[in-house]
Each structure stands twice: as C-alpha cells, then as structure tokens.
C-alpha cells in the first residue's frame, strides 16, 4: 500500500493510541489509506475549499482530504481518545487542520468554516441519517455546503437515491432529491472496516442545487410526504385525509389518482400537491 504522507500506517496509530472502536459511538474504522484517499477524491476538487468532517476517528479520511489539497479541514470528534492522533496530523499539515471535540448533533461548526465548503465524512452509523436530514433542511436554501460525500450503511444509501415504485423509496429519497443531485459513488464490504460491521456500506455524493428541483413550500411538502409514507400501504385519499380538507380534489388537481399509494408518486407530483394544498 502506497503512503499518502509521512505519517505512520493507521494500524500503528491505533495501536500507539489504543483506539479500539466503540460500538456505543458507532465507530467502524476504515484503515486502508488508499480507500480513504479515493473517498476524498470523490468529494471533488478540494483546492480552495474548506471541508467539514464528522467523526474522523484515527484520521484516515482526514489525511486523505489534506493530501488531496483541501484548503482547510475542520474535524469534529466526540471521542477524546482520538484527539492525540489527530493532533499529530495537524502537526504534519501546519495551519490546515482544526479539530473540535464535541457532538456533531450539538455543535454548530459554521463559525469555523469559510466558503466554499464541502462536507466529507465516514459518518458514525448512529447519527448519519439525522445529520443528513439537518443538512438538507436548513431554514434557507442554498445551504452552507456545496456538496456532501458521506458514508452510510448500504441500506440507507439506497434509500437516498431510490426512485418511485421501489421498496426503498420514501421520505429520505424525496428530501434528498428535492434539493440535491444524489448518487452512490462507492461500495465497501464489511471487511474494509475494523471491526467489520454486520452490513455493507456505500458512499453517497450529494451536490446542492441552487434552488429546489420543483417549487413547493418546504413545511407543506414535508407534512404531506410524512403523512403519505407513515401509512404507505393506504391509498393517498385515506393517508392524507388529515392534511387538508377536500384532499381528493387536491390530489386530482396535482394529477395524482386518489387511489395511488405514496411509493408510486414522483417528487414532481408531490410538489404539485404541496402547491395545491398551500393555496388553501
């Protein structure tokens, strides 16, 4: 395995700092620096960009991002055991890595970042979906980030890119595809990680659109989609009856047969329905 910098291999780093992965923190370390460098490249051209990384652990992806030319990396790490290893990376890349100790669900990193900003992370499995939803639902759009390059369990990744009619199509697909282009760009088997998780993983790359793909009020769209998929076996005329009076009229106005189920309805049609409901 070729080296990407002069720092030790990650297995040596883990041994030196006694960084056994903890299930309670959703940790599964990716130790192959060739793979972490590839993920960094999948994040796009990092020169001239600040990069936000969540859960760097021993710093494999951190090193890849820096080696690929990121202007500055902000790594947010909850596990204090990892901080000494990350400090060694900061010393090897003077002035280009800032490490904050804290919970990604509680810390707002934007004060430490300068646009343009990309997000790249091997997300802890236990917070990955919640972080994605937060990044996709800011109060105003476009968001603070240009792109998200994120590792998920394969099942979650497939839900993000799912199309109408599939079993994985649901709220996460609609939320992601309304405001971003999303694609799976890499698959990883359990054996790529230490310790190996019970599931395969995948990297998803999302590029923020300058404005939503179809016009709709965000709150109204979210309410409709939530109601539709919370009772996905029901016809929409029944699943959405509490959303607005005369829901069948709104469904017909949007070109959606009232007997359809949520998983059969396209993003464009859901947005048309949200516009109709919003006019009440």
Notable characteristics:
280 residues, alpha/beta, Rossmann fold, Helicase, Ruva Protein, domain 3, two-stranded antiparallel sheet
Question: What is the topological layout?
Answer:
Elements: H1 10-17, E1 29-30, H2 33-42, E2 50-54, H3 60-67, E3 72-77, H4 83-92, E4 97-101, E5 117-122, H5 128-136, E6 147-153, H6 154-161, H7 171-179, E7 180-188, E8 193-194, E9 201-208, H8 218-230, H9 236-239, H10 247-253, H11 267-278
Parallel strand pairs: 2-3, 2-5, 3-4, 5-6
Antiparallel strand pairs: 1-8, 6-9, 7-9
Short note summarizing the structure:
The chain is of the alpha/beta class and 280 residues long.
Question: How many distinct helices?
Answer: 11
Helical content (DSSP H or I, runs of 4+): 25-40%
Ranges with pLDDT <50 over ≥5 residues?
A: none
Q: What is the count of distinct domains? A: 2
Strand fraction band? Answer: 15-25%
The rough form would be described as: elongated
In N-to-C order, the SSE pattern is HEHEHEHEEHEHHEEEHHHH
Q: Examine the secondary-structure arrangement and name the CATH architecture of the largest domain.
A: 3-Layer(aba) Sandwich
Could you tell me the CATH topology label of the largest domain: Rossmann fold
Mean pLDDT metric = 94
Radius of gyration over C-alpha positions, nearest whole angstrom: 21 Å
CATH class of the largest domain: Alpha Beta
Q: Class by helix and strand content?
A: alpha/beta
- What's the CATH H-level superfamily name of the largest domain? Vaccinia Virus protein VP39
| Sheet having the most strands | 7 strands, mixed
Give, in spatial order, the strands making up the sheet with the most strands. 4-3-2-5-6-9-7
Tell me how many strands there are. Answer: 9
The termini sit apart by: 62 Å
């Amino acid at each position: 395995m070729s080296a990407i910098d002069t720092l030790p291999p990650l297995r040596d780093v883990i041994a030196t700092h006694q960084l056994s992965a903890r299930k309670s923190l959703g940790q599964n370390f990716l130790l192959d620096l060739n793979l972490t460098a590839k993920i960094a490249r999948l994040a796009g051209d990092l020169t001239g960009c600040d990069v936000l990384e969540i859960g760097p652990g021993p710093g494999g992806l951190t090193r890849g991002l820096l080696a690929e030319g990121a202007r500055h990396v902000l790594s947010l790490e909850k596990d204090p055991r990892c901080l000494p290893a990350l400090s060694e990376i900061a010393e090897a890349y003077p002035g280009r890595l800032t490490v904050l100790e804290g919970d990604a669900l509680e810390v707002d990193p934007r004060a430490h970042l300068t646009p343009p900003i990309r997000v790249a992370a091997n997300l802890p499995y236990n917070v990955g979906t919640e972080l994605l939803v937060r990044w996709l639902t800011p109060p105003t759009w476009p968001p603070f980030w240009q792109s998200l390059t994120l590792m998920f369990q394969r099942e979650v990744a497939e839900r993000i890119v799912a199309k109408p009619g599939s079993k994985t199509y649901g709220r996460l697909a609609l939320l992601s595809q309304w405001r971003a282009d999303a694609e799976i760009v890499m698959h990883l088997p359990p054996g790529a990680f230490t310790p190996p998780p019970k599931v395969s993983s995948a990297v998803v790359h999302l590029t923020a659109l300058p404005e939503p793909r179809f016009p709709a009020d965000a709150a109204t769209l979210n309410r409709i989609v939530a109601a539709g998929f919370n009772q996905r076996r029901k016809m929409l005329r029944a699943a959405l009856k509490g959303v607005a009076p005369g829901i069948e009229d709104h469904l017909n106005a949007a070109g959606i047969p009232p007997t359809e189920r949520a998983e059969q309805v396209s993003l464009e049609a859901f947005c048309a329905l949200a516009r109709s409901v919003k006019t009440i």
